[in-house]
Write the structure tokens for this entry.
Amino acid sequence: SALTGNLPEFLVRNNYVQRSVTLFMAIKVILVETGTVMGVNMRGIAFIYVATAVVAAILITGYVTFVERELWKRTALLVIAMLLLPPLSTEYKLIHLLIPLFLFVNSTEQSRADAIYALLFGLLLIPKDYYLFPKSISDSGVPDISIAIFLNPAIMLLMSSLIIAGGLRRWRQARRQRHPYPLPVEQSLASN
């Protein structure tokens, strides 16, 4: 297929897992650890994943372009999409989060959620190899896939959700102030 034809073979092979921060590898580790990976068509899952990732990237780009106004949040959403959406994105790429972190620290705008954002940035930038999955063998030939393969995507999804929910709430409030809802037909007729 056009969407998965150029994917490296190691992404669609059932027995291959690599240390990553993407949703795709988190899904693959679940399949490996539950023992269901051998009965799954990874090329089909990769096709569905890539198609879904393209749609998500378009939606995020639209949100960043038309709704979000704070630079650090726009940058954070784009960096998180860059990390989460490709089929493979290794852990060292989390260093790209330093760009939105720098913008966040230097932002003049403040919100009630700033402490939560600071905590999430901190959690993303610390090592999280607390538990290794025994059935998931990486490209190094040893079981060195850790709980970080789930924690990093979960933290990035939480941060993205908080940013988007807050941005949509502010966008709706601003829209209501510019265009208040019209009165019901009966009330507008009675006032004439």
